[in-house]
Amino acid sequence: MVLTHDVLVIGAGLAGMRAALEARRKGVDVAVLSKVHPVRSHSTQAQGGINAALGEDDSWEKHSFDTVKGSDFLGDQDSIEIFCKEAPGDIIELEHMGTVFGREEDGRIAQRPFGGAAFPRTCYVADITGQVLLHVLHEQILQAGVRVYEEWFATSLIVEDGVCRGALAMEIRSGQLQAFSAKVVIMATGGLGRVYEPSTNSLISTGDGQALAYRAGAALMDTEFVQYHPTALRNGILMTEGARGEGGYLLNSKGERFMEKYAPKMIELASRDVVSRAEQTEIDEGRGVNGFILLDLRHLGREKILERLPQIHELAMDIAGVDSIEEPIPIRPSMHYFMGGIKTDVDGATLLPGLYASGECACVTVHGANRLGGNSLLETVVFGRRSGAAAAEYAGGVPAGNVSEALVSQEGDRIKAVLDRSDSGDSVARIRMEMGETMNRYVGMFRNEEGLNTAVAKIAELKERYKRVGVHDRSRVFNTSLLFHLELGNMLDLAEAMAFAPLHRKESRGAQFRVDYPQRDDEEWLKHVLVRYTPEGPSLDYSPVTITRWQPERRVY
Length: 557
Ligand SMILES: Cc1cc2nc3c(=O)[nH]c(=O)nc-3n(C[C@H](O)[C@H](O)[C@H](O)COP(=O)(O)OP(=O)(O)OC[C@H]3O[C@@H](n4cnc5c(N)ncnc54)[C@H](O)[C@@H]3O)c2cc1C
Description:
By secondary structure, the protein is α/β, with parallel strands linked by helices. 38% of the residues lie in helices and 18% in strands. Strand 20 (527-532) and strand 21 form a beta hairpin. Bound molecules: flavin-adenine dinucleotide (FAD). Flavin-adenine dinucleotide binds at residues 10-16, 33-36, 38, 41-43, 45-50, 129-130, 153-154, 188-191, 200-201, 204-205, 208-209, 238, 240, 337, 359-361, 373-377, 380.
């Protein structure tokens, strides 16, 4: 039997649930499918907050300029204007839905300073903002009557005559494959942090949606731009930017606030690409502390730390064994966020008819070459809402799909072949670790041609090994080995595209620092790189950057 819905949303993080809610409000039949229970999506880990120009002295224009500058002038300014103009309305709506934002004494929503922002405009719920928002939206979609398929894993998109008509998915509990027919699919599968090792991302952030869309014919854009967050513990666990927003310092081994050298005006609150590179430079030049930088919160005092940063205090204690009230926390940059993704317009439409995308898996692009903290949660709600509305409208104009059940058996054969494979002596975990370490080393904060070529060759080798590797668990029920296998296939395709595109962008901009081309080159490179899938490997194309009112200028903090 084929399951049929008007709108099928893949992913139940903030973007997926916000899109589903909006589509449902337009009166169409909506289902959400997620590989984990909705409130376990990575959005739950967002700590520091969500941006909007709410303050009397702030404005959407100021928020836009900070975002454009943060993006190193690669963000599309028409998208950024919409993004920043609509932000306050979305925050107030989240508040009305029940989000218990932090407050000022007089009752207004409190806002903390964040990196790269000239104004304190990050709304927060202590340091558990994402968790609270996710629970609020989960309640909303249940109340609105959205059908939720939880613990279902989407394995591929269904494309007929160049139009997306649904998806194939596996119910994890039973291992059963199922065809979903939909008038429109919204991809909202989040980030791909686990292509890197280490990463601040959850183990489930494996870029499945980007890979499915890429293979189905949608283009990926800005894949050169990967954000390293300046403050992560050894294993990648994040210490929110809110810690610096509340006044935390970064110190080197000499006890210096070294950021004064790199960003005299904004110091620790320069944008993330700038701070991460500065930290790594200090470490590489011998002014680190056993390979780390120190995040010092002591001067904030016990009361403020426990009120505003309780989770940071607890994580530092549990994971690094450090009491942040008494001692500085050893941190270092870690892979955090993917600015690139499935290319969409401002309503979420991709280049594949019938497929929309929103949230971290999409690329609108408001973040350009570097995202500002607090702008990603905002992207999930603004563009989640817009894509839900646009997809519902699209669904109203197309006839019901008629997907063939035969597709299920073809996909079943592909999966059976993995289960039947004999032991190649290799393992999914080994290939995944080698991929992650290769990407971190050669496609990380500092890049050069030789390293990028090494990465391309290594990913090609890993893709060959992947074709032969099987799984030890051959059962059907809750087979997580099989899921890891499928996720690795997705990540390898993305790793290939992500190592390939930066080779071509011969300049440094935002998060991409080419040691061999250290300057930004607006003459040649004020454009987006698009990557398309072909069986022979990625193929490149370009698209212009939309500039409305902010001409590129030198970027200093
Ligand atoms: C530790 C951390 C802290 C952060 N803090 C902040 C912050 O303070 N402010 C900010 O603005 N941003 C922050 N970010 C970034 C921000 O949280 C994310 O970009 C955003 O939450 C992504 O939301 P999403 O809805 O796009 O995806 P996610 O929340 O990642 O959800 C993805 C969904 O897709 C589903 N899915 C994936 N693959 C499949 C598949 N194959 N089949 C079925 N379902 C699938 C998952 O089950 C999940 O429901 C942080 C990120 C991290 C990692």
